[in-house]
Write the structure tokens for this entry.
Amino acid sequence: MSANAPTARRGFTRGDVFLILLAAAAVLACAAWLKPHDAGCDDDGCRFEGWVGDEFSQEVRELSETRPVFSLARPGEIPGTRAGDDVDLRTVNVRLWEPLKNYLGRHPPLVPQEVGDCVGQGWATAIETHLGVNAARGFGVFREVHPSFVYGLSRAVAKERLAPEAYARFIRGDGSLGALAAEAVTRGVLRLEGPAIPEYSGDVSRQWGGPGGPPAALLDQAEMSVVRTTAKIPDARSAAIAVANGYPVAICSKLGFSRVREADGRLVGVRDKTWHHCMAVTGFDGTAGRSGYFYFQNSWPVSAEPLFGAEPLQGEPPGGFWVTFEDVEVALAESPSDTFAVSAFDGFPPLETDFHFLGLGPRRGPPDTLTVLAS
């Protein structure tokens, strides 16, 4: 055969097809392994989630066992009892955002979530609300909390608390656990603005949520401002009593909603979806509905959420909605226990006895509150 003669084309053999299929399977497997936990896109758009409690349910249970169960501490109370069981929730109507709104003259700006760092977002909002309640009472000043730092430090705690195999799965994508955040905030809380502190972004959350954790210099700064107590919320009644006494709740669960409906003069979420999400509970109104409503503050961009972008009907913070007592009870029963109340000192002493006017009553000395974020 001459050098210029055309060569015959060889068709695909079974071996070639096998190799192609094998390579495609490897690519798909790699993509699935790298898939972030925050994939929350459907026909309604992208809604970043990021709670991985279903995937790590056993770890949630084990971590939650290290946190105290919520109870109110009163002088002379028998240790281990659950104070507050005598409270008639039908008389409770507490909106923890109102003292902060009055203090600032506005609602704090919504920091739209960009990646699967909802655990940091929900906890940051809960801590901010607690700070705002006490600032309005004349104790300390208000500072916005950096959600990326809460998120990043929670994932650094995971490196210490999870078994190596579980941590290898955990660190592969976005997401965290409420129980990890419950420990992280006792190590430090970082303000959102300050020298050498980058503003919130998804990139910052992913950088600080990586294996290296948040920068050491910021860890040192955050140590000056800690949450001294977080307590596990086992049921909806405990959540209502916590909020009624000035303690916001960070709820991480599978509660999901497709839309809101107007009921009892407010926008109420319709629970018919599964989210893997963390939000802050900053209000409870037991005077309406069958058993009352909780107010959930969400971290999704209002402009990107046609389902939840309606103007609040009662002056509530933007981006949130009310959730029935029954829906919260179901969520806490069916999900791993990964919901916590935020305070500061050991125990949760009541801040006010008049639930309707929280923060407006006579001062009784400095309340058990967060250490004010360092100026």
